[in-house]
C-alpha cells in the first residue's frame, strides 16, 4: 500500500506542471470569459455586471450578423472544396510511381509557408490590374475580375488562397489511405471493379473516420479564420465583404476595449461550432465505418 501511495504521489508530482499550465492558461481564461460576457469590461477598469445585456445587444447588432454571415459563407465554400482537393491529392500521391517522395514534399510545402508572407504573395496575384492571375486570363481573352475590390469575388478569393494550405489535411488522408488493406483492392480487381468503384466501395468507407476528422477540423478552423483577411484588409473592405467574425471580435476586444462584448461573441461562436460539429457527427453516424465496428 505504501508503495502504491508513493507511486501515485510521484505521478501527480510529475503531472503537476501540466495541471498548473492547464489551470492558468486554459481553465481560468475559460471561466473568466464566461463571467466577463455578462459584464461591461474595458480591461482598464473593473468589470460591471450587466447581466444578459451583451447578448441582447449582439442580436441587434447588424455588424455581428454581417460578420457571422460572411464567416458561415466562407466555411460553406471552403470545407467541401478543401476536403475534395486534399483527398484527391492524397489519392494521387498514394500511387506507386517514380519520385513520389518528391511530389509529396512539393504538395505539402505550401502549408509550411508563414501565413503573412503567403497573404502578401496572393495579394499580388489577385491584383486586378497587374496581378498574375488576371494577366494569365487576359492571354486567353478573358477579362479577370477585381478579386479584392469586387464584393462578389472577395470571399471566393479568400477561399482560393486558403486552399493553398491543404497539405496538412492531405498528409492525414495519405496516412489513412496507406492503412487500407491491399487484399481488398485485389479482391475488387478479381471482381472486375473499375477504379471509381474501388474508390467508392473500398477506399472511402475505410478512410471515412479520417474524412470525418478532417471535416470537423476544417469546420472549426474555417469559422476562426482571421490572419488572411486581416492582412488583406483590416476593415474588411470592400463593403465589409471580408470582415469576418474573428476580426470583429478582435476589434471589440483590443481596439474598442469592449472585452465583455467580445467574450459574449466568443461564446456565441463556441455554440455555433459546437452545433455544427454535432450536425457533422450526426450526419456521419451511418456513413462512417470504424475498424471492427
Provide a descriptive summary of the structure in words.
This protein is mainly alpha-helical. The chain has one domain: MetI-like (MetI-like fold), CATH 1.10.3720. It is built from 14 helices and 2 strands. A two-stranded antiparallel ribbon has the order 1-2. α3 (62-93) runs antiparallel to α11 and α13 (245-255) runs antiparallel to α14 (259-284). The longest helix has 35 residues, at 2-36. The chain is globular, with a radius of gyration of 24 Å. The mean pLDDT is 91.
Mean pLDDT across the residues is: 91
Backbone CA Rg: 24 Å
Number of domains: 1
Measured as a percent range, the helix fraction is 55-70%
Report the biggest beta sheet as strand number plus sense, adding barrel if it closes. 2 strands, antiparallel
Q: Which overall shape is indicated by the principal axes computed on the Cα atoms?
A: globular
N-C termini distance: 40 Å
What is the number of helices? 14
CATH superfamily placement: MetI-like
Q: What percent of residues are in strands?
A: under 5%
User: What is the CATH architecture annotation?
Assistant: Orthogonal Bundle
Please count the beta strands (DSSP E, at least 2 residues each): 2
Give the ordered list of helices and strands. HEEHHHHHHHHHHHHH
* CATH structural fold name: MetI-like fold
Low-pLDDT residue spans? none
SS-based structural class? mainly alpha
What spatial order of strands do you see in the largest sheet?
1-2
How would you summarize what this structure contains?
This protein is mainly α and 293 residues long. 69% of the residues lie in helices and 1% in strands. It has a two-stranded antiparallel sheet.
Amino acid at each position: 500500500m505504501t508503495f502504491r501511495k508513493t507511486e501515485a504521489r510521484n505521478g501527480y508530482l510529475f503531472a503537476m506542471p501540466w495541471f498548473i499550465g492547464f489551470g492558468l492558461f486554459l481553465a481560468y481564461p475559460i471561466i473568466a470569459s464566461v463571467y466577463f460576457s455578462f459584464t461591461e469590461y474595458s480591461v482598464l477598469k473593473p468589470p460591471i455586471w450587466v447581466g444578459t445585456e451583451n447578448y441582447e445587444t449582439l442580436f441587434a447588432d447588424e455588424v455581428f450578423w454581417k460578420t457571422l454571415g460572411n464567416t458561415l459563407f466562407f466555411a460553406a465554400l471552403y470545407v467541401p472544396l478543401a476536403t475534395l482537393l486534399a483527398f484527391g491529392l492524397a489519392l494521387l500521391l498514394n500511387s506507386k510511381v517514380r519520385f513520389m517522395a518528391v511530389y509529396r514534399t512539393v504538395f505539402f510545402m505550401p502549408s509550411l509557408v508563414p501565413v503573412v508572407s503567403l497573404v502578401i504573395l496572393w495579394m499580388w496575384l489577385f491584383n486586378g490590374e497587374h496581378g498574375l492571375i488576371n494577366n494569365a486570363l487576359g492571354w486567353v481573352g478573358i477579362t479577370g475580375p477585381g478579386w479584392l475590390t469586387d464584393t462578389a469575388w472577395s470571399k471566393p478569393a479568400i477561399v482560393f488562397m486558403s486552399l493553398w494550405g491543404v497539405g496538412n489535411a492531405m498528409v492525414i488522408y495519405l496516412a489513412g489511405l496507406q492503412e487500407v488493406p491491399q487484399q481488398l483492392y485485389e479482391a475488387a480487381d478479381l471482381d472486375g471493379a473499375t477504379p471509381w468503384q474501388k474508390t467508392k466501395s473500398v477506399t472511402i468507407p475505410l478512410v471515412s473516420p479520417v474524412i470525418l476528422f478532417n471535416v470537423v477540423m476544417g469546420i472549426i478552423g474555417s469559422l476562426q479564420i482571421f490572419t488572411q483577411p486581416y492582412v488583406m484588409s483590416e476593415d474588411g473592405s470592400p463593403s465589409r465583404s471580408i470582415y469576418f467574425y474573428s476580426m470583429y471580435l478582435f476589434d471589440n476586444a483590443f481596439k474598442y476595449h469592449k472585452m465583455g462584448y467580445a467574450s459574449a461573441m466568443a461564446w456565441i461562436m463556441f455554440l455555433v461550432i459546437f452545433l455544427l460539429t454535432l450536425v457533422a457527427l450526426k450526419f456521419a453516424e451511418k456513413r462512417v465505418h470504424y475498424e471492427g465496428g
